[in-house]
């Protein structure tokens, strides 16, 4: 189980990954539980179902790669031939700057306000091409599983078709190296961090899901829980919900 505390404006938030079930937490304004295996009916907590892909890390490296799609396997191998290099837990500031631009281009929050708290608790893998940092991926892990939390690349910030292609290869290689690193540490599962299992190709998540599916994980249902202790934060949450419904 991993706990990460962060602050946004005046509110203290505690996020917990891989807990068996949610529980009350002192000295915070809101608590969030992610990647819970089973459904629980606990007063005060709101539960939502989520889907993800889990990769079993117990087979050999060759067998894990064989379970990947042909295209995914090809791109991982090509990334190695192109001379892309992976670094671990270095260049946090450089990746933060790259990720900030990536988030702006994608127009989503991307947990940017929690980046440094997550980076301190997790593992950051960065990919470099000809001495330039071009992509990165952040994971959290306990002694049983690792989870892909966030990633970003130069893909949306460059007009050069060659660099766009290289950035795509980097994204494949980062996932592969992160799951291999988890396997070498004796971790049993690699969680690809969420999965859209619909068939609406106009949904932005559809393309991301296709990318993740290439790694051969098993579709798995998980649960997310939240509890707001602060009355003012609960009020803000209700206002946002009403605004979305209008």
Explain how this protein is built.
With 246 residues, this protein is α+β, with helices and mostly antiparallel strands. The chain has 2 domains: 2-51 and 223-245, no CATH class; 53-219, Gcn5-related N-acetyltransferase (GNAT) (Aminopeptidase), CATH 3.40.630. The protein is 36% helix and 31% strand. It contains 7 helices and 10 strands. It has helices at 61-66, 70-81, 92-106, 115-121, 161-184, 204-213, 231-245, and strands spanning 2-8, 11-17, 30-36, 46-56, 85-88, 123-129, 132-141, 145-153, 189-191, 218-228. The chain has a 10-stranded mixed sheet. Helix 2 (70-81) crosses helix 5 (161-184). The protein is globular.
Q: DSSP helix count? A: 7
Terminal CA distance: 38 Å
| Whole-number tally of structural domains | 2
Give the beta-strand count.
10
Spans with pLDDT under 50 lasting ≥5 residues?
Answer: none
> What is the CATH domain class of the largest domain?
Alpha Beta
Query: Order of SSEs, N→C?
Result: EEEEHHEHHEEEHEHEH
Mean pLDDT: 92
CATH architecture of the largest domain: 3-Layer(aba) Sandwich
CATH superfamily descriptor of the largest domain: Gcn5-related N-acetyltransferase (GNAT)
The structural class is alpha+beta
CA-based gyration radius: 19 Å
Helix percent reads 25-40%
Q: What strand line-up does the widest sheet have?
A: 1-2-3-10-4-9-8-7-6-5
- Proportion of β residues? 25-35%
Using the alpha-carbon principal axes, give the shape: globular
CATH fold-type name of the largest domain: Aminopeptidase
Major β-sheet profile: 10 strands, mixed
């Amino acid at each position: 189980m991993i706990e990460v505390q962060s602050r946004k404006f005046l509110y203290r938030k505690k996020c917990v990954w891989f807990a068996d079930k949610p529980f009350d937490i002192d000295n915070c304004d809101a608590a969030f539980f992610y990647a819970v295996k089973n459904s629980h009916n606990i007063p005060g907590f709101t539960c939502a179902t989520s889907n993800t892909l889990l990769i079993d890390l117990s087979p050999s490296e060759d067998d894990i790669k064989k379970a990947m799609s042909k295209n995914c396997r090809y791109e991982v191998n090509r990334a190695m031939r192109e001379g892309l290099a992976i670094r671990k837990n270095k260049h946090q500031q450089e990746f933060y700057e790259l990720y900030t631009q990536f988030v702006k281009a994608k127009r989503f929050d991307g947990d940017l306000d929690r980046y440094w708290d997550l980076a301190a608790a997790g593992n950051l893998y960065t990919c470099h091409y000809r001495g330039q940092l071009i992509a990165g991926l952040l994971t959290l892990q306990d002694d049983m599983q690792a989870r892909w939390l966030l990633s970003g690349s130069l893909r949306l910030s460059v007009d050069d078709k060659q660099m766009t292609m290289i950035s795509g290869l980097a994204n494949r290689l980062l996932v592969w190296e992160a799951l291999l690193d988890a396997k070498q540490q004796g971790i049993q599962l690699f969680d690809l961090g969420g999965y859209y299992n619909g068939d609406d190709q106009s949904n932005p998540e559809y393309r991301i899901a296709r990318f993740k599916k290439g790694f051969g994980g098993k579709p798995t249902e998980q649960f997310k829980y939240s509890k707001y202790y602060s009355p003012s934060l609960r009020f803000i949450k209700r206002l946002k919900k009403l605004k979305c419904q209008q």
